Structures are given as C-alpha cells and as structure tokens.
Amino acid sequence: MARKTVLVSDLSDEEIQEGKGAKVRITFEDARSGAIELDVTAEEGRAMGAKGRQVARRGRKPKGS
C-alpha cells in the first residue's frame, strides 16, 4: 500500500504543494532555549524573510582560475 505525506503550513494550515514550501528556523542567543522550526508555504517564507537580511552561504569559497 502506498502512502503520501502531506505537509501543512504551521502558520495558515494550508497544504504545502510539492516544491513550494520553506522551513523557518529560529535559534535563540540563549542555547538553553533551543531552536524552533516551522514549515511554511513559499509565499509565507518570503513575507517573513522580507523583514530580515540575506545571509551568505557557508563553506569554502571556490578557487579562482
């Protein structure tokens, strides 16, 4: 029997279509508080991200030629 997992937004309770979702992770300065992760639609994620700032990707920089 096949099973299908359906993701639902934690903010609006809308179904998140395949490839149209985002995860929002909130980490606190106080490590004892832990972290919170939300599943949201892409539109909700963009709206929340508009209030923040872009963060560079981590890792090594590519070698120059």
Strand content: 25-35%
Structural Rg: 16 Å
- Please give the number of β-strands: 4
Helix/strand-derived category reads alpha+beta
Please estimate the helix content: 10-25%
Compute the average pLDDT.
Answer: 89
**What topology, given as strand order, has the largest sheet?**
1-2
Low-pLDDT runs: none
Shape call: extended
> Count of helical segments?
1
Cα-to-Cα separation, first versus last residue: 53 Å
Largest sheet: 2 strands, antiparallel
The SSE order reads EEEEH
Describe this structure in words.
The protein is an alpha+beta fold. 12% of the residues lie in helices and 28% in strands. The chain has 1 helix and 4 strands. The protein has one helix spanning 42-49, and strands at 7-8, 15-16, 21-27, 35-41. The strands form 2 sheets. A two-stranded antiparallel sheet has the order 1-2. The protein is extended and about 50 Å long.
